[in-house]
Amino acid sequence: MLAAASAHGVPRRRRSGRVRVRGRDDGKRLRAPELGAELGERATLVQFSSAFCAPCRATRRVLDEVAGLVPGVAHVEIDAEAHLDLVRRLEILRTPTVLVLDADGRVVRRAAGQPRKADVIAALGEAM
């Protein structure tokens, strides 16, 4: 969404609380040792959180629910502050950030912000 033009006449983007979704992160792959948990048989939902993040708690509930509904899907939550090397490597800029991995650990989708259940299910369809 575009806001009013800046003083120089160039449009500025308005910041909103909406989730930003990106497509494939080619070449980025995660393995069980990096995650501290096993990958799901069909897909894995990886959530980067921080301790005092209210949207992170809501995101945890949504991802747990989806992982419980879809067979072969695992949900892994990672404390961003405790895993700064992984945060930098994956260019995680805010919490919550959710990565959807396929069965081989390749990042197929990512979203920053609190996702909707329907969006998570749709992203899983792409991973499986």
Automatic annotation (TrEMBL):
Provide the Thioredoxin domain boundaries.
42-122
What SUPFAM superfamilies does UniProt report for this protein, alphabetically? Thioredoxin-like
- Compositionally skewed regions (Basic residues) per UniProt: 10-21
Mind telling me which InterPro entries this protein's record contains? Answer: Thioredoxin-like_sf, Thioredoxin_CS, Thioredoxin_domain
Q: Where is this region: Disordered?
A: 1-27
Name the chain's protein: Thioredoxin family protein
The organism encoding this protein is Streptomyces cathayae
